[in-house]
Amino acid sequence: MARSKRILGLADLCKGYDTVLDIGTDHGLVLRTAFEKGYIRHAIASDLREQPLKSAQKNLKDYPAQCVISDGFLAIESQFDLVMIAGMGAYLISDILEHAPIGQYDLILQPNDKVHVLRSYLMENQWKITDEWVIHDHFYYVIIKATRGKMNLSDDDILVGPILKTKPEAQDFYKHKLKLIEKIMKTSDETKLQELKRLHQAYNHVIIC
Ligand SMILES: C[S@@+](CC[C@H](N)C(=O)[O-])C[C@H]1O[C@@H](n2cnc3c(N)ncnc32)[C@H](O)[C@@H]1O
Fold first, then answer.
1. Is the CB of 93 inside a 6 Å radius of any atom of ligand 1?
2. Is the CB of 153 within 6 Å of ligand 1?
3. What does 27-70 look like in DSSP terms, one character per residue?
4. Ligand 1 centroid to 111 CA: how many Å?
């Protein structure tokens, strides 16, 4: 069972839930890992495309998982208590959440980019961030847990993460981001430079020297 740290981390976050809906499941490996570890009882593996879903079907054949072709939530009819949306861009995740049905469930979201766009979306659409993590697996991956509710994030918290900033293990991530920003700043035009300076300032604030 050789799995990436990212997949293992996402599977760990399924622990204690009954039915996990994995939107954009692709290979279904997060769900399979969660089943193998005995963390979940049922799953709905869904994907927009047939080919990935076939691969999920193969990987999940020994477990109680339904495989459903669906654009986000649109064709999902069964109940779930956790929704996983991982490995996609923040804008796509936000688009998918536009059709999130009313109900009692948590979200685990792992955007591949622009985490601040997703935090902003969650705040504006009555979702509340309840935890955040960062996993280093060749790249840094930020993971957000959210539930229905209200939150008021400052501009800085949207950029750095209201909970992530309190985690000692996120310090390396922030330092990495600062270095990256400093590098890009050298070749940026004035508009981009202003945006990067803002980001630089926010990350700088949360770094403990
Ligand atoms: C990069 S894979 C991520 C796989 C897995 N979630 C992970 O984190 O390892 C993205 C998957 O999302 C699927 N996808 C993209 N847009 C989607 C949508 N609107 N609804 C459902 N699945 C979608 C793609 O077909 C692809 O299989």
1. no
2. no
3. T-HHHHHHHHTT--SEEEEEESSHHHHHHHHHHTTTSSEEEEE-
4. 11
193 C-alpha to center of ligand 1: Å? 32
Name the pTM for this structure: 0.96
Helix ranges (H only) for 110-162 are 115-124, 155-160
pLDDT tens track for 89-127: 999 999 999 999 999 999 999 999 999 999 999 999 999
State which ligand 1 atom lies nearest to the alpha carbon of 10.
8
The tens digit of pLDDT for each residue in 148-206 reads: 999 999 999 999 999 999 999 999 999 999 999 999 999 999 999 998 999 999 999 99
CATH 3.40.50.150 fits 5-154, yes or no: yes
Annotated domain spans of the chain: 5-154, 167-209
